[in-house]
Amino acid sequence: MATRCTGAAILVAFAVISSVSAALFAPGSGVTWPVVSLAVATGLASLWLRRRDDGTERRVCVLVLGDLGRSPRMQYHALSLSKHGYHVTFVGFSETKPHEDVLRQERIKMEPIREVKGVQVGPKIFTYVTKVILQTLQLLLVLLKMETQSHILMQNPPGLPGMAVAWLVCVLRGSRFVVDWHNYGFTIMALSLGAAHPLVRLAKWYEHFFGPLAAHSLCVTAAMKDDLQKNWGIGATTLYDRPASVFRETPVKRRHELFVRLADAHLQFQSSGCEEDERVEGTAFSVRDLSGDAVTLRAERPALLLSSTSWTEDEDFSVLLDALEDYEGFINAGAALPPLVCVITGRGPQKDHYMKLIDSLRLEHVKICTPWLEAEDYPVLLGSADLGVCLHKSSSGLDLPMKVVDMFGCCLPVCAIHFNCLHELVKHEENGLIFRDSQELAEQLKSLLSGFPSSDGRLGDFRRNLRTSRGQSWDDNWDQTVLPLVAPP
How confident is the model at residue 381, as a pLDDT? Predict the structure, then answer.
């Protein structure tokens, strides 16, 4: 079988490389080259690969051409499949650890792949093309060496070259290809390269060509469903993100335990040092009586503001930093507002840039902390916060921020920056507020935190609204929407 898979992989690799090269270097040739090369490879390689057994219909590959630990929706897919008796091969980069529920599930097998960089000499286009070729070969070897799967469920973006490779493998092995559209890859590329860049045009052609070839498509908003149908000819099913069960309000005792651990590494969580009694364990937010083990929140504690980010071009964190400077100014002018501890979690390419901006700030009443949290600690911190801030601006205007879904699962009110379909998630003046610039955000922080920590104001109203309108769970939503698509015919 290994010999057959290797021979097929070579054929399919040739086809994919030919397709990409034709699109990149011969744009006037239309789709003739891609169609011919893919058809030839399909006809030859399918002779090797259509081997099925009694367990095939209970096997699904979940594919992410990104970090598995930072792909919560795909982790939820894997868990839902495993709960219904499917054996899941979870393929992606292993930069950060997925949630413990995923790691403990016996029916989920992790299949790590490495992110390739391409040849780092010569023009950038050469680096990009070699990266696509090497990633294509790697994916082919991984997907073809595993047992035949009933479905390959792939996240897009990122989709190049994974979408083409996954579709071809499905055709060759008689599997069904499912794409879960989180956004459009070409619109993300356009943020840094510009919409007219040749690579952006190639990425747009690529998604338009391979997207409609999927047997089923999922998407994250009603607006994206309409756009896929109107402009792509794709009939997608909307699967709204829902918080996993781990996202909920955190009990006071567990909050304190997390605060104590964070205080070991971050000064912002440490108490002011006023506790002289050895029987008391204190943080900036909480106090534990060691003699009776009772935990209470400090009446004079700072407000805990939380935001998470992947530090990419679609989130301008200077908006938050400017608002925090304005908030500092409100306090200096005599406003009765609490001090703030602002926690920003996540990793990404622009973090160093923003860390320099943060280090340049001279704030007395606002402290900024940028910890990296383990998967188990993140929902605990969300459930301990007083207010969330989201700066995600969709590159396409058609996706919704998962971080807000998680915050709402913890009944955490949110201030979120405006974009077109945000109203599908954030209801202004009901579960949070929508702002357009730093000045508006600063005024919202001032309004929501006046009287803190009392729960009588608007912040308390938003939290109560979230408690009474949690809506359908992920499991129920998935069972109704996705399970019928993957169930054996």
Answer: 96
pLDDT > 80? residue 229: yes
CB 53: neighbour CB atoms within 10 A? Answer: 9
| β-pair partners for 303 | 340
Backbone angles phi, psi at 63, to 5 degrees: -115, 130
Query: DSSP string spanning 197-227?
Result: SHHHHHHHHHHHHHGGGSSEEEES-HHHHHH
Cβ(56)–Cβ(148) below 8 Å? yes
Render pLDDT for 104-135 as a digit per residue (tens, 0 to 9). 999 999 999 988 876 777 777 778 788 889 99
Q: What is the DSSP letter of 450?
A: T
Sign, CA torsion 270/275/276/280: negative
* pLDDT-based confidence at residue 39 (cuts at 50, 70, 90): low
Distance CA 444, CA 450 (A): 10
Cα–Cα distance between 339 and 302 in angstroms, integer? 5
Q: What secondary structure does DSSP assign to 347-365, as a single string?
A: --TTHHHHHHHHHH---SS
Distance from C-alpha of 17 to C-alpha of 161, rounded to nearest angstrom: 10
The 10s digit of each residue's pLDDT in 407-433 is 999 999 999 999 989 999 999 999 999
The winner for highest mean pLDDT among 226-240, 275-289, 343-357 is: 226-240
Q: Which two tokens stand for residue 383?
A: 């459930």
Where b means 16+ CB within 10 Å and e means fewer, 220-236 reads bbebbbebbeeebebeb
Of 454, 308, 289, 482, give the one whose Cα is nearest residue 386.
454
Burial of 288-307, coded b for 16+ CB within 10 Å and e otherwise, reads beeeeeebeeeeebbbbbbb
Residue type, 48: W
Nearest Cα neighbor of 155 from 82, 228, 66 is 66
CB distance 131 to 118 below 8 Å: yes
